[in-house]
Amino acid sequence: MALTATLFRFELNLSDVDRGVYETIELRVAQHPSETDAYLVTRMLAYALEYERGLSFGRGVSTPEDPPISAPDQMGGFAIWVEIGQPSAERLHKITKQAQRVCVYTHKNPEFILADLKAGSIHRAEEIDLFSFDPSFIDTLAAQLTRNNTWGILRTEGALYVTIGEQTHSCTPGVHTEHKADAHP
């Protein structure tokens, strides 16, 4: 018998001072059986930090040609495509040809992605935004996942605060621009 997805409910109370975005977002999110809790948490944080009207989740890890998170442009393409984890250089090369803006949010070592971006085989590599979370921060949030989640998410001056119940956890996501500096001497 095939394993089924687990459904999670999230209420995100987003206060993104850095972008001037203040929203309460209610989501029902399916976690594929092969998706780790760390991946799910990273996906939720990426959604919140990139939130704009029209942003949506793809059909899931069982549909690899879909973006994990995206928003359409006016021509039927992608205004933004958000990848989670450690996408391959080949995948990044392909999606930069399909989307106006590409972001990667990772809970893993960003050095592997940076090496791919610097290698010169990815179309528009210098335009890809790469963000990383400390794995211990992600693990702490993952340990508090329940089927019904209410998160207060505050980003101010680059710092990220996530409040779950009475506990607030913080980190400063890594913003990796090393590959951009090399592209623009």
Describe this structure in words.
By secondary structure, this protein is α/β, with parallel strands linked by helices. The protein has one domain (8-183): Restriction endonuclease-like alpha-beta roll fold (Roll). Helices cover 23% and strands 38% of the residues. The chain is built from five helices and eleven strands. It has helices spanning 37-49, 89-95, 111-118, 135-143, 178-183, and strands at residues 6-16, 21-31, 56-57, 69-72, 78-84, 99-106, 129-132, 148-156, 159-164, 167-171, 174-176. The strands form two sheets. It has a six-stranded mixed sheet with strand order 3-4-5-6-7-11. A five-stranded mixed sheet has the order 2-1-8-9-10, with helices on one face. The protein is globular, with a radius of gyration of 16 Å. The N and C termini lie far apart (56 Å).
Layout of SSEs?
Blueprint: E1 6-16, E2 21-31, H1 37-49, E3 56-57, E4 69-72, E5 78-84, H2 89-95, E6 99-106, H3 111-118, E7 129-132, H4 135-143, E8 148-156, E9 159-164, E10 167-171, E11 174-176, H5 178-183
Parallel strand pairs: 1-8, 5-6, 6-7
Antiparallel strand pairs: 1-2, 3-4, 4-5, 7-11, 8-9, 9-10
